[in-house]
């Protein structure tokens, strides 16, 4: 296809503003999916995605569209909407020349709308503002058209009004994509350069790599080369999705399509990498490549210890389709054998644990999420800590922690309570702006460690669900952080150690010692539960002793009954963990960790 007749665009929207529904309607109107085959959210393939309405993996579809007798190829690139996947979002955007900014006409702009809009503007995309769901009785298109126009410039009359549900306005929107989004430009006779914007594991075909051709051409059966690693692969198939995969005679400047090489691991085909040909390799990779970096860490343990091998296998499998997932074996006194896993963010963690339980039938407990700390010790070493148990025990010179730029959008009535919450989480207010009359955007810098710990839940409950949140990394800062240990009869219970700000060490200690006191059954002796920073005790509870004599209940002689009771007690002990001399049912640890 002549690049002049190609348009590459994406849809950016806050969750639930109707991106998938609109995409479905476009597929139907352009005729690439027949009415008969149409099923809700055609593009979201994973069950979990469909159920939770989140797009995890982006994909691309080619749709034909005619304007004034000229045929165009519209490539719609689906972007993941969530911040955890912001690197993937940014690569999808980099594959486009234009973006449809989709806003629910009953809700208005939300935090993710803004975050994605800023990303799109950084990528110099042409922005097409669109209000969706105008069929809703609660829709207020005039009000939100003004809001959108204020935000991106231009007149409220330029804001298109559509309904992805009924299809109203969608044809006009496709016309506008052709009219407004610039055609791709590239050097047709230069060495091939294609940017990978997505890489998906398919159990039948191996890894399917989605690319946007920037320069040159890729031909079937060519030997391709990944520029970040220099590794080469034979092209088994090259084609376009429409939306089912269709082999083609190659991909040229501006085109969007897929490559299949038979590799089985997405790490060999990384999002953001540049693909070139082995025969005539390009010298300069396309800009913007970085390795996905885990930001949030948590220990995952099977509740039934014998599931450990299944967990290992399951993680190995998930890793094939998720280059951002990291894990290594870990053992814990309280929880047994498990894995320390690294995630892009909290949603990523949630998705992985849910897939482990759903697809592999695993019952898991996750330790409190932690972030990466850099610890400088007094003897001049620098230690990277992703697990509180690795925190150096000697004298500490400084600790630095990751900081994020947080954007929160809230109705103005809740500004006070949101600010209070952010301050309690060591947030620094960087800016505050009104969007329209009743909504406010608050911008904070905040330690990531304060966000991974139930911040979102608190934000939602303080604003009755109205506030939305987005964040992106903005570097590191030094902070007065300490490791708090929890001790049972003087023995450290590893899964409960946490790195917290010194001001919060006491309240963490009190919370955990109280929880454990209420959950751990009494023993034959008194058991002190302490919270400590190093050797200094900061909180203390104790479990009083009982005389636990089960046999006393059997008045006298019935020996078989006595034996039965003893057997029963033994069985009960199987799920006990020993911490020093103290016997603790594993359930108590699990309940304490999950805050139940
Ligand atoms: P993600 O892709 O998961 O981020 O969400 P989304 O933006 O794709 O939202 P989705 O298309 O799943 O729509 C969210 C909800 O809004 C669904 O319940 C849709 O049925 C509904 N919806 C989408 N478009 C319209 C519309 O034009 N009118 C009405 N009334 N409802 C709509």
UniProtKB/TrEMBL annotation:
Location (main, coarse): membrane
Instruction: List, in alphabetical order, the Gene Ontology terms for molecular function in this entry.
Output: GTP binding; GTPase activity; ribosome binding; translation elongation factor activity
This enzyme catalyses: GTP + H2O = GDP + phosphate + H(+)
Q: Which SMART domains match?
A: EFG_C
Pfam families named in the record: EFG_C, GTP_EFTU, LepA_C
**What is the membrane topology noted in the UniProt record heading this document?**
Peripheral membrane protein
SUPFAM superfamilies, alphabetized: EF-G C-terminal domain-like, P-loop containing nucleoside triphosphate hydrolases, Translation proteins
Any single biological process term in GO? positive regulation of translation
Task: Give the source's domain of life in one word.
Answer: Bacteria
EC assignment = 3.6.5.n1
Q: Where in this chain does the record put each Tr-type G domain?
A: 4-185
Keywords recorded for this protein, A-Z = Cell membrane, Elongation factor, GTP-binding, Hydrolase, Membrane, Nucleotide-binding, Protein biosynthesis
Q: One Gene Ontology cellular component annotation?
A: plasma membrane
From the Swiss-Prot or TrEMBL record, state where the protein is found: Cell membrane
Could you say which residues bind GTP here?
Answer: 16-21, 132-135
Q: Does the keyword Hydrolase apply?
A: yes
Indicate whether Metal-binding appears among the record's keywords: no
By sequence similarity, the record places it as follows: Belongs to the GTP-binding elongation factor family. LepA subfamily. Belongs to the TRAFAC class translation factor GTPase superfamily. Classic translation factor GTPase family. LepA subfamily.
PANTHER family (alphabetical):
TRANSLATION FACTOR GUF1 HOMOLOG, CHLOROPLASTIC, TRANSLATION FACTOR GUF1-RELATED
Task of the protein: Required for accurate and efficient protein synthesis under certain stress conditions. May act as a fidelity factor of the translation reaction, by catalyzing a one-codon backward translocation of tRNAs on improperly translocated ribosomes. Back-translocation proceeds from a post-translocation (POST) complex to a pre-translocation (PRE) complex, thus giving elongation factor G a second chance to translocate the tRNAs correctly. Binds to ribosomes in a GTP-dependent manner.
Name the record gives this protein: Elongation factor 4
The species this protein belongs to is Mycetocola reblochoni REB411
């Amino acid at each position: 296809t002549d690049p002049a007749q190609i348009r590459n665009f994406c849809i950016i929207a806050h969750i639930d503003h109707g991106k998938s529904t609109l995409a479905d309607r476009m597929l139907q109107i352009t005729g690439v999916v027949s009415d008969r085959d149409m099923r809700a959210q055609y593009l979201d393939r994973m069950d979990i995605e469909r159920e939770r309405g989140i797009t995890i993996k982006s994909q691309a579809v080619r749709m034909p569209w005619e304007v004034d007798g000229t045929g165009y190829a519209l490539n719609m690139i689906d972007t993941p909407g969530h911040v955890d996947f912001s690197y993937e979002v940014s690569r999808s955007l980099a594959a486009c020349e234009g973006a449809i900014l989709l806003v629910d006409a009953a809700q208005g702009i939300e935090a993710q709308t803004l975050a994605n809009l800023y990303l799109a503007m950084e990528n110099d995309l042409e922005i097409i503002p669109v209000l969706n769901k105008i069929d809703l009785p609660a829709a207020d298109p005039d009000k939100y058209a003004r809001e959108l126009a204020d935000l991106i410039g231009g007149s409220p009359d330029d804001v298109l009004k559509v309904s992805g549900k009924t299809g109203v306005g969608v044809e006009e929107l496709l016309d506008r994509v052709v009219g407004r989004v610039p055609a791709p430009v590239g050097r047709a006779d230069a060495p091939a350069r294609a940017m990978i914007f997505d890489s998906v594991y398919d159990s039948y075909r191996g890894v399917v790599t989605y690319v946007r051709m920037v320069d040159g051409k890729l031909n079937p059966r060519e030997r391709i080369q990944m520029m970040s690693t220099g590794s080469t692969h034979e092209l088994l198939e090259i084609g376009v999705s429409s939306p089912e995969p269709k082999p083609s005679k190659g991909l040229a400047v501006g085109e969007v399509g897929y490559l299949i090489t038979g590799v089985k691991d997405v790490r060999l085909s990384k999002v953001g990498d540049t693909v070139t040909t082995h025969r005539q390799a390009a010298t300069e990779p396309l800009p913007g490549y970085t390795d996905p970096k885990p930001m949030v860490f948590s220990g995952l343990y099977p509740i039934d210890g014998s599931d450990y091998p299944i967990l290992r296998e399951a993680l190995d499998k998930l890793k094939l389709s998720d280059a951002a997932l990291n894990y290594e074996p870990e053992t814990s006194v309280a929880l047994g054998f498990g894995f320390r896993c690294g995630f892009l963010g909290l949603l990523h963690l949630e998705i992985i644990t849910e897939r482990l339980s759903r697809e592999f039938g695993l019952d898991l407990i996750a330790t409190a999420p932690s972030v990466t700390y850099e610890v400088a010790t007094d003897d001049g070493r620098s230690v990277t800590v992703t697990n509180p148990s690795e925190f150096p025990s000697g004298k500490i010179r400084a600790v630095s922690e990751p900081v994020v730029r947080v954007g929160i959008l809230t109705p103005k009535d809740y500004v006070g309570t949101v600010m209070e919450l952010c301050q309690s989480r060591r947030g620094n207010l960087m800016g505050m702006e009104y969007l329209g009359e009743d909504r406010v955007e608050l911008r904070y810098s905040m330690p990531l460690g304060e966000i991974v710990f139930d911040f979102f839940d608190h934000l939602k409950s303080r604003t009755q669900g109205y506030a939305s949140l987005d964040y992106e990394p903005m570097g590191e800062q030094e902070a007065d952080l300490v490791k708090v240990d929890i001790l049972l009869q003087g023995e450290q219970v590893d899964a409960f150690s946490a790195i917290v700000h010194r001001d919060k060490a006491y309240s963490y200690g009190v919370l955990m010692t109280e929880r454990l006191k209420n959950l751990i059954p009494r023993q034959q002796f008194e058991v002190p539960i302490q919270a400590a920073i190093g050797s200094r005790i900061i909180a203390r509870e104790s479990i009083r002793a009982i005389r636990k004599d089960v046999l006393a209940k059997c008045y006298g002689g019935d020996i078989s009954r006595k034996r039965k009771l003893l057997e029963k007690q033994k069985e009960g002990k199987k799920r006990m963990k020993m911490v020093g001399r103290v016997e603790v049912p594993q359930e108590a640890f699990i309940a304490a960790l999950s805050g139940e």
